[in-house]
Design a protein that fits this description.
By secondary structure, this protein is α+β, with helices and mostly antiparallel strands. Helices cover 24% and strands 28% of the residues. The protein is elongated and about 40 Å long. The mean pLDDT is 83.
Amino acid sequence: MMQRLLWTRCGWEDGFTYRVSGTLHSEYGVVEFDLNTAERVMEPQAAENESEVP
């Protein structure tokens, strides 16, 4: 459910792969991500290719 909320809030399309850069805050041991800057990196696979799994 949380994933669906993030996808909707960020305007991402279902089935695509996205990449986002982060900023390391080493003094706190965390990485900060601005999910609104994500770039689409992969198109979804065609339905006929999914049935060809060996």
